[in-house]
Amino acid sequence: METIPNKIKISLKDTIAYIGFMGPIITTLITGISLLENPPYLFSFIFGSLLNNAIIGVLKLTIKQPRPTNPLQYIDDSSIRGANIYGMPSGHAQITAFAITTLYLTKGPIQWILVSLFIGALTLYQRWSFRRHTIEQLTVGTIIGASFAYLIFWITKNYLERVL
Is 124 helix (H, G, I), strand (E, B) or coil? Predict the structure, then answer.
């Protein structure tokens, strides 16, 4: 039986870390693709995603809560600047919660909702286990992202759906 050379062995821990780190991108793509046949909600999801990202920056610069000390290296931190040096709220948690909540509210396919929830859990775990965020920062990010998704959904359902 052949063994895989050490250079290309990928551990489960590395896979979880990578999926968790990429969680916002993955869940945003899943939600966006699921909404391709629903233009009013796709438009509001894209616009809401842009606003959600702006809210993250404003909140980080307003609250200025530091990230946990002694984070584990996953990326080169030397490129992190501006609002992203702060930890409150977790942008990863907020973006992921926004996408998952939108997918749920727009009645996305159940299998994609479940996959997105799993990826969301991996994202929260990765951000916590690499000491990039505290539980409080992750919780606040999740609540803001889900709440903002509900607001965007409500506006779309009650106003934009009729116009678009």
Answer: helix
Domain ranges for the chain: 12-71+82-163
Q: Are 120 and 101 in contact (CB under 8 A)?
A: no
In angstroms, rounded to a whole number, what is the distance separating the alpha carbons of residues 157 and 120? 25
CB 42 within 8 A of CB 32: yes
Q: Which residues pair with 66 in a beta bridge?
A: 86
pLDDT tens-digit map of 102-161: 999 999 889 999 999 999 999 999 899 888 899 999 999 999 999 999 999 999 998 876
Round the CA-based radius of gyration of the chain to a whole number and report it.
17
How remote is the C-alpha of 137 from its chain's centroid?
13
12: left (phi over 0), alpha (psi -120 to 50) or beta: alpha
Residue 107 burial by Cβ neighbours in a 10 Å radius (0-12, 13-18, 19+): exposed
DSSP label at residue 74: S
Q: What is the pTM of this model?
A: 0.86
